[in-house]
Amino acid sequence: MRTNILTSILDNDFYKFTMQQGVITLFPYAKARYAFINRGKHSFPAGFANILRKAVDDMALLQLSKQEKDFLRITCPYLSPVYLDFLEGYRYDPSEVKITQERDQLHVSVEGAWYRTILWEVPLMSLICELYYLSTNADRISDEAVMERTRNKIENYLHLGVTVAEFGTRRRHSSAVHHLVMKALKEYGDGSFIGSSNVHMAMSYQTKPIGTHAHEWFMFHAARYGVKLANALGLEHWTQVYRGDLGIALSDTYTTEVFFKQFDKMFSKLFDGVRHDSGDPLLFADKVIAHYQQMGIAPITKSIIFSDALNYDKVARIAAHCRNRIGMSFGIGTSLTNDAGPAALNIVIKMTAACPEGEGWTPVVKLSDEHGKYTGDEQAIVLAKTILEID
């Protein structure tokens, strides 16, 4: 079975690179641990760990090309030349990834310097998905059918009058399907399709790489500064690195209720908007609008990026609720890149612990607006909820 599936070091979500620059700048001595979580309790075939191991080992050969470096330099001027030189010299170190299998259950963990290990999560997930379908001989629809399905979807979004970005790398069916989806979005999505979270795909199809930061940014800040200061200092440090660029704030690492208590007037004015990733999107929109109004800011000048398991029906409902009240855009993932026949895998890889400079390992948690999306050690979750006064 072919395992050298990834052909570009940029075949990853954009926010991994933007966070990596932030980590190098502010936390160069920090360490991190990540773990694979099989939410869907999928059964993996015998020998799958060995196949994945080979694919991960192959990643050591990936490196930034001159053309890729030029793309980042021109397209993303907020990525410093020092960082781009670092990325040019970066190589994946497969020894940072541990992979085992007990009967049909897969175990994957990552540990090492945070500025290095931060790039593993997304490509690891995409490899697990693609190799799972290959190793189980799962049939998919034809290339033409993938293109047609994608065409229908983006034309529906176009008729709905909304802008859409492709966010589907981590749980895509395969690299090949991802390319077909991007080809169709680019060909038929003019007026609606605005970019991709995948930097390699954005470069390949001459569109915009989209993303800012992820939950792990705030989870690390909780380990370093305490959970009560995680949101405020996470945002403060983001603005310190990016000075107003990349201005969409992720709101649900420790519930939106806690986030908005710390998203004060300065942050509310400085950031272009917020991203929704869990909980009822309509209730969230109402909270965001009320927050901006309370701050004396016209909500229509700000935006919400919706990105939680979206499909056309959900987007249509959200758009009807938000139109003419607040700016909006939609990051659509699995329903674009893994609608090729086999069921999508329900898997995640999350940071589980962080080791700030000069300190021991601290477990980290995520307390999203859906309890089913909580991640982390049970005791750490209880402690964080107690400190933050979350029911």
UniProtKB/TrEMBL annotation:
Highest rank taxon of the organism: Bacteria
Protein EC: 6.3.4.21
MF terms in GO: glycosyltransferase activity; nicotinate phosphoribosyltransferase activity
All copies of domain Nicotinate phosphoribosyltransferase N-terminal, residue ranges: 10-128
InterPro entries for the chain: N/Namide_PRibTrfase, NAPRTase_N, Nic_PRibTrfase, Nic_PRibTrfase-Fam, Nicotinate_pribotase-like_C
Keywords in alphabetical order: Glycosyltransferase, Ligase, Phosphoprotein, Pyridine nucleotide biosynthesis, Transferase
SUPFAM superfamilies named among the record's database cross-references: Nicotinate/Quinolinate PRTase C-terminal domain-like, Nicotinate/Quinolinate PRTase N-terminal domain-like
GO CC terms: cytosol
PTM annotation: Transiently phosphorylated on a His residue during the reaction cycle. Phosphorylation strongly increases the affinity for substrates and increases the rate of nicotinate D-ribonucleotide production. Dephosphorylation regenerates the low-affinity form of the enzyme, leading to product release.
Gene Ontology biological process terms in this record: NAD+ biosynthetic process via the salvage pathway
Record pathway: Cofactor biosynthesis; NAD(+) biosynthesis; nicotinate D-ribonucleotide from nicotinate: step 1/1
Modified residues (Phosphohistidine): H215
Reaction equations catalysed: 5-phospho-alpha-D-ribose 1-diphosphate + nicotinate + ATP + H2O = nicotinate beta-D-ribonucleotide + ADP + phosphate + diphosphate
Residue stretches making up the Nicotinate/nicotinamide phosphoribosyltransferase domain: 164-388
Top EC class, one word: ligase
Entry similarity comment: Belongs to the NAPRTase family.
NCBIfam families the UniProt entry points to: NAPRTase, PRK05321.1
Function: Catalyzes the synthesis of beta-nicotinate D-ribonucleotide from nicotinate and 5-phospho-D-ribose 1-phosphate at the expense of ATP.
Protein name per Swiss-Prot or TrEMBL: Nicotinate phosphoribosyltransferase
Originating organism: Chitinophaga filiformis (Myxococcus filiformis)
Gene behind the chain: pncB
